[in-house]
């Protein structure tokens, strides 16, 4: 981004990027839809807050130098990528077996705050968002101040954007009265989560 622009001229384009990146389908939103259907909106709030905090912290840490570490030691990034893929497969299996809002399954419960925050580090889409915010929408002049501002904008936009998916899932959960129907919905969500691994598979075969 050119440095001669006004200091806050990047905020509107950044907010638009944050909205599009947050609201489009991806692992987080598939998981939130399934959680909303199985557990309802209120019990999914810690999951959403964890996502928002996770991406904000990721932007800050990558911006202050963690990206350079991955450039020097790409094996760390590669390990995170495949660890994330394996974790997503496990999450898909858990979603496929999720219970309804009555909590009838003792083996499943909503994602916790810290679980969701930590998950961003193995979430390919979160990495794309973080790198996009830093490389494209954060001016180099007064970089660290702008980095903090960019991270805050991302956090403010991210939460209501991902809430849309949780609300949708919650509405679906209320509409699907039979356990069989909810189970089929969760199987569909699990399948979509597995499909989100496509970029990782393509990259590994390149």
Give the gist of this structure.
This is LysE family translocator. By secondary structure, the chain is mainly alpha-helical.
Salient structural properties:
206 residues; mainly alpha; 9 helices; 78% helix; disordered N terminus; amino acid transmembrane transporter activity
What report would you give on this structure?
This protein has one domain (28-100, 109-205). The protein has 206 residues and is mostly helical. The protein has helices at 11-23, 27-39, 41-72, 74-96, 113-119, 124-137, 143-175, 179-195, 198-205.
Helix tally? 9
Please estimate the helix content.
Answer: over 70%
- Spell the H/E element sequence: HHHHHHHHH
Classify the beta-strand content into a percent band.
under 5%
**Largest sheet, strands/sense/barrel:** none
Low-confidence stretches: 1-6, 103-107
Structural class: mainly alpha
Give the tally of β-strands.
0
Please report the distance between the alpha carbons of the first and last residues: 31 Å
